[in-house]
Amino acid sequence: MNILNRVTLQNLKKNRTRTLVTIIGIILSVSLFTAVTTSVHSLKTHVINVVKEQDGDYHGAVSSVDGKELSSLVSSDKVNMVTTIQNIGYAKLEGAENDYKPYLFVGAMDNSFSSIMPVYLTEGAMPSSSKEILIPEHLSQNGGVTLKLGSEITLEMGKRYLGEEELAQYNGFDPKNEVFKAEGTRTFNVVGYYERPSFEGYNAPGYTALTLPDGGGPDSFDAFVRVEPAKDIYSFMDGMFSGHNIEYNDDLLRYTGNSNENTLNAVLYSMVAVLSGIIMFGSISLIYNAFSISISERTKQFGLLKSIGATKKQIMNSVIFEALTLSAIGIPLGILLGVAGIGTTFVLAKDLFTHLWREETRSVLTLRLSPESLVLSAVLGLITVLISAYIPARKASKVSAIDSIRQTDDIKIKPGKVKTSRLTYKLFGFHGMLASKNFKRNRRKYRATVISLFMSVVLFISASSFSEYLNKSVGQVMELSSFDLQYTLTPESEIKPAELKEILAKLDGVEKLSYGSSTYDLSLVVSEDRLSEKYQELSTDHYGSEFVKMDENERILNTHLIFIDDEAFNNMLLENNLSTEEYTDLSAPKAVLYQEGKMFNYDDRRYYTFNIIDEGSFESDYIIVDHGDDEIFFTGERREENLVYKDMEDNEVLIPYEEGITTGSLQLGSLITEAPMVSMNSLSDELNVIYPLSAKAAVLPENDEDSVTEFYFAVDDHAKVFKEMAETLKDLGLPQHRLQNRASNLESNRAMISVVNIFSYGFIILISLIAAANVFNTISTNINLRRREFAMLKAVGMTKKGFNNMMVYESILYGLKGILYGLPVALGVTYLIYLSISNGIDFEFFVPWTSVIIAVGSVFVVVFATSIYAMDKVKKDNPIDALKNENL
């Protein structure tokens, strides 16, 4: 070790406080980099594992291929995995409660199917032969049919047809037109139950039961494929199976970076780039100031070394050695802190991560370390330190030996530059004027302090903006609901809605409920003047605009007409401070309006949120189109004064316009901002028009008394109440499959928002620590370097009160200048963050004013606290000893 390096080590030991704060800065910086890289790697691995668990480990799937096509697929060079299920056929279910799922579909798995696809036993065992069968558990829960474990069942197997076309699982049930043709019987032993599989679509007409192939059976297979490279799956499947039903494992392809949809990745990469930039920005500011102050403190030392022959390169190497020494301590500790921090976060938030998924998952989020992520963190940390050290070292190496010894570069006074205004003297007295002169005469040291405060303001507001924009974007895209459970009561049910409400309201845990009906048959005809500009820009295609008679400045508005029970309607009026008398007058019914326009634009692939109308309280015309019946259907064409319909034999039927379209007017009231407890489309451009149920006959000219009634429940424990409610419905003889646990389905969305909050606030806390350490290090070291100056002021008679007044004024100057420079830049960074996130989501730019106020207040708190701490140490100095010490 050469002499310069030894001097550097001694200097580090001598200035322990500054050395410690610098190491802390490196630790915080590297821990943040480690937290980002490790969490990204861990989360990505976890998400991929969950997707494979829930959807299967395949890239693409094709339905109903024959043996010849399957052989071509297996022999392809690009394919590295194929698993199949043979389509044995359908069997009608006796006593099925779900009208749209009347079949049991039987499929025969190949040897690898259960290990590649999501087949999870809940009871019993897997089939070991073609005479054993595995039953999906939702057959009982959703279909109301129970096949006992160990029982022998005989099924009349067959196929479904629509005309000459054979139908598959991806073809929904068509009770009017499809035909079931039996082909023979098969007998199975029920050996187990398994969870509802994701490869059974929600519109599938059959519950998927699984067995093993017997070597014969239909020449029809569903194949699930992995190709290499995965990104070629789209062209491969389109080229080989044109004309077949093809599906892709979109989530797996997206999370592994092989999807042809890049919006998500563009937004994520933009946010990660901004995040990394903020971390590096904050870290460089802290570490740079530490080295800048260190070099300023050693200026005279560097001058002496240069005078005895030290070269610029040796001076530069001395500073780089200091940086490497501090990095050798800070980087390993930073990696350990980052790993420990993110690991602890994963442990504490494991339940939230489990709820991120719409179905229960067996995969547990654990900390996964990869050499690449740790090395990347260390390299980023080292680059940050070296940049921070190189800038001041380069400046120091250029200063001549004489100037360094004299330290003339530290304080440069030009005539008139330290002059202060009379107003300063009148407002703050002699001590305030002296503080102002100190500020002007030694701008370099004061500039470092102001830059630290500037960085702190920018970092805190930028981090807070990042978190708030991220929260807003997640909340805007995610679907949330005003209710937890939903039940559908059909007209043929013997029990009346009011009776069912009275029974279900008594269940433990039901906090609030409402019921009602709704229709989309009615559409409002509204003047364009009442529509928002954003709505007119985005929503351009409206059904009916081609055949409805209306003025040029009128638009047809997609409308959701809702009727809720009178009690719930009155409660809604009270919550929104609306007049009960005005909105419940059945002789002149008036609607409450709710709007939440959301849309995904496929042209620019962005989510948009917008108002549909600018304000409520107006009268509007409406239309109701007769779409036909079992014998004829409307084609959507108007020919002069007639509407064109067609019968089942494709013959045209002309009906006069006035007979096919009913017109009228509605009185529309105020807009409310809180969503009512009813079901509404999450992505739509519909205006929700809400009336009390008692007004239905007055609003609709042809009131349909036999409409479906929907019940909505807000509960305290959705899983518990769901189970109890299902039992109650069963006792009442009502189908249980119409009960939906909406809260369970949306738990993943709520969990996503919570996870975003956890990481956001954790990020803000660490950035705030970096900023606070930066300010503390800069101010305390600067005050420490002025101990000779303070000793001289003491020697000429400055009192303790005078010192305090001077430091108060200096602190105010620090804070004001830091805020004055920091706020515009912070707002600029906020706008850049807004631009990066708005790549995929459209929303208005906003300033996080709460964070701005916190930042401004925190600047003064930290400045005053640091000044008090540093001055407390200075006050204990003996003036004579301090004046003798030329190193200060």
Helix content bin: 40-55%
This entry's quaternary arrangement is single chain
Cα-atom radius of gyration: 37 Å
Count of alpha/pi helices: 27
CA distance, first residue to last residue = 27 Å
Report low-confidence residues grouped into runs of 5 or more: none
User: Largest sheet, described in full?
Assistant: 11 strands, mixed
Structure description:
The protein is of the alpha+beta class. The chain is 49% helix and 21% strand. The protein has 27 helices and 28 strands. Helix 2 runs antiparallel to helix 23 (742-785) and helix 15 (443-477) runs parallel beside helix 25. The longest helix is centred in the C-terminal third of the chain and has 44 residues, at 742-785.
Q: What would the keywords be for this entry?
A:
28 strands, 21% strand, eleven-stranded mixed beta sheet, single chain, alpha+beta, 888 residues
Topology at a glance:
Layout: H1 3-14, H2 16-55, E1 60-65, H3 67-74, E2 79-92, E3 103-109, H4 113-116, E4 121-124, E5 132-136, H5 138-141, E6 152-162, E7 165-166, E8 179-194, E9 206-211, E10 221-227, H6 233-240, E11 246-248, H7 250-255, H8 263-297, H9 299-307, H10 312-348, H11 350-355, H12 371-398, H13 401-406, H14 422-441, H15 443-477, E12 485-489, H16 497-504, E13 510-519, E14 522-527, H17 533-538, E15 554-557, E16 559-564, H18 566-575, H19 580-583, E17 590-595, E18 597-601, E19 606-610, E20 618-625, E21 632-639, E22 642-647, E23 652-656, H20 657-660, E24 661-672, E25 687-692, H21 696-699, E26 709-715, H22 718-731, E27 739-741, H23 742-785, H24 787-795, H25 800-837, E28 841-842, H26 849-874, H27 879-884
